[in-house]
Design a protein that fits this description.
CATH architecture of the largest domain: 6 Propeller
Distance between the termini: 27 Å
CATH superfamily of the largest domain: TolB, C-terminal domain
Number of domains: 2
Low-confidence stretches: 1-28
Strand order of the largest sheet: 1-24-23-22
Helix content: 10-25%
Length: about 425
Amino acid sequence: MTPIGPKSALCLAVTWLLLAGNPALTQTNAAAAQDHLRAAAQAYRDGDFAGFTTSLETAVALNPFSLPSQYNLACGYARTGREEEALAILGSLVAARVDFGMAADQDLASLHGNPQFDRLVSELDANLQPVRASEHRFTLDQLGLIPEGIAHDSQTGRIFFGSMRTGDVYVIDGNEQLSKFSTVHHDGKLAAIGMSVDQPNNILWVVGSSSFLVEEFDEEAPARDGVFGFDLDSGDLVKKYIADESIENFNDVVVGVNGELYVSGSALSVIRSGSGKIEPIDTSLPIFGSNGIAVRPDGRRIFVSSYPVGIAAVNPDTGESQWLAAPDNISLYGIDGLYWYESDLIGVQNGVRPWRLLRMQLNEEQTAVTNVRLIEFANADVTATTGAIVGDVIHYVGQGPEPNSVPSHFPEAIAKFAGKIVVMTAPLN
């Protein structure tokens, strides 16, 4: 999900949720990150900017990849007279084309009129010129469904997408007619999140996950995440894999070359063809908080985006893992959807502002991102979540702009996610 506004208590809470799943952290350090970010939020509310800054310094030390935390720390430095340190952080964010609203941020007021700050604002304006390559496919004129996953049926040309709010899966046919296809549930409603078409078995696989965004969510009620298989022709449920208590927070699913299913979430898991059970993959790096997942065509390596850190390359047979390196001006933080295309990785990066659709070139060893091309950037009409590659294009789903008002019966927690569902198509070449 996209982080909320910098420095707000909600932003700090969301940032902590990301940090708590940080693959670079032990469970002990994750708990410490929670304490420091809670302390930062309270210090900010109290006007204790020195305490706010100190707590954020620790959070950033635990996870230097978190761009919202970096920005908040820059604001703390500006508030406490450490202008050079603030400018250094802001300079790195500007180089990465990231803007959390610094030009008008009153927490940076001490920098206003500083020639270096003014240069950064001008440079940021130049860096934020939109890149628009997408074509509009479909808008669902209904608020509050909260889109996440999307998949494409190559046999019929249909596009599927899911709702985190209702757990429903919708389908757009070749005539762009919309209908409800299926629903994920197990002992109650689940959010429909990641999905993937398994063409050889004629199945649409959909991740169902417990989430506060689900209608009538009851945090006290037991909820079990799962992977649900629906017949592509009828929409009937034909397979269901439910996680035990040791596995939670499922996010995305992809079909491997031998029919196995790789599932991201709090950890990386696999459902081997014919096994009938969900098994955690014992990775050499503890890859928590994983989101998008892509499989190399030979099946010998999978790439997993850890939203709070970056992208890991994993040998699915041995679990050997490593983080992909990247140049200083390229951040791999906040990538939601992740896909393999012509030896490159395609990423939907919505954890930064503006959101962007990336084509990431890898080195020959596939251990580093060497270059990034922006396919779509700074499109204010939609914030994308995930995509589905079809030939040389990607269909992606996202949320339209936040409405000026939402129905009174909508819970306050979902107001920022209430935009209409938008489906777009972009060329990859």
